[in-house]
Amino acid sequence: MALFTSNRDFQLWDYTVTHKQLLLRSPRGPNVADNIDIVFWSVRYLNLQTALRGLAIDLASTQDAASVEAIFGGAPDVSVIRIDTSEKQFFIAAGGFRVLQNDRDIFDSTLCYMGDDRPIESCGKELVRFRSPAN
Asked: Which one, of 24, 6, 20, 13, lies nearest residue 94 by Cα?
């Protein structure tokens, strides 16, 4: 079973180089009350398109992780995470991720030091949290 699944559309919404954080968002709209934000931290490798139609997030298989490590140039000090969509498979090497549900403004990013253990109530309701055992 996947760590998180959704049939909603997601977009690559925000990325900060300095904190190595990535935000994928399924924005709220006329028929959808809340945003679903997927925030990754300690991002070391990213293979992703900018629009995703539905997704399932899980840890990469040993074989897929080895393929990413070959591209990366060695084993990253984080987990290799697989994102399956209806069309394709993508990989992110990251220290972990959180899935948040919120009603924040469309221009309001939820990238806010997600790697630590501080409360994140202001970022929304946490639906899923995964921290890499390697991190």
From this structure: 20
Q: How far apart are the first and last CA of the chain?
A: 23
Could you tell me if 109 and 13 are in contact, meaning their C-beta atoms sit under 8 angstroms apart? yes
User: What pLDDT, in 10s, does the model give residues 34-79?
Assistant: 999 999 999 999 999 999 999 999 999 999 999 988 987 877 789 9
Q: What is the pTM of this model?
A: 0.91
Dihedral angle of Cα 117, 121, 127, 131, to the nearest 10 degrees: -10
Taking CA atoms, 47 is separated from 29, 36, 52, 80, 99, in Å, by 27, 21, 12, 11, 19
Q: How far is CA 99 from the centre of its chain?
A: 7
| Amino acid letter for position 24 | L
**DSSP-assigned letter for residue 34:** S
